[in-house]
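Lab notebook, bench 4. Still working through the backlog of constructs that have no structural model yet. Next entry is a single chain of 222 residues. Request: give me the structure tokens for it.
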Amino acid sequence: MKGRLHWIALGLTAAAAGCSDIAHPTRDDVYEWRLMVPAVSGTGVDSLSFHWPQSRLPVRIWVEDAVDLPANMPGAIAAWRGAFLYGEFDATVVGDSTRADVIFRAGPPPGPKLARTRLHSMLAPECQGATDLDVSDDHTQLRLPVRVYIDPRQLPDAPNLAQCLALTTTHELGHALGIFRHSDEPTDLMFADPSVTAPSDRDLETAELIYHVPADLEAVGP
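Model written out:
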């Protein structure tokens, strides 16, 4: 799979160079990001890619005022925004949850899923996270809002809890921007239980690549 992604990255770079004086950076150290799904009958498609289109930027994020979520969100947005040279991704915090593209809440995800796909991650002793995606049956639409849950599993003054909450917020935002799978390397922030506090070079190059390949899903919502 790494070889396939390498050639995709090289092809995109060459195409960009042919169309512009400024070529997109080479992305040759990436991991699989696509959502694996049962193939729809007659299509054979079993992996889905998504990125936010320019028409929906900045992505509107509503954040519950709990467990330092509001304080951690600006750093999370900045960490991923910095991956892009041409403004391919941006986000802003909004005050109206009914018009949000992504909703961050404190606490564990609800028992009955509000979405069809749940990305479990960050199963650390201090905290955990989860991201819910609602993908249409025909695998053409991502129904908004994306719902993210940040759950402190220890008391507020527990050692390492603040760091865990901060990196989990950034990790889950990585899912919301289009990295739908976990990295296979613990030194990447998008590993299921990472040992780092910020996106690695592999994380950032993967995010860049996602925004330069066709999306299979269209964002549909408020």
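Notes after review: The chain has two domains: 1-30, 54-212. The radius of gyration is 17 Å. Flag for follow-up if needed.
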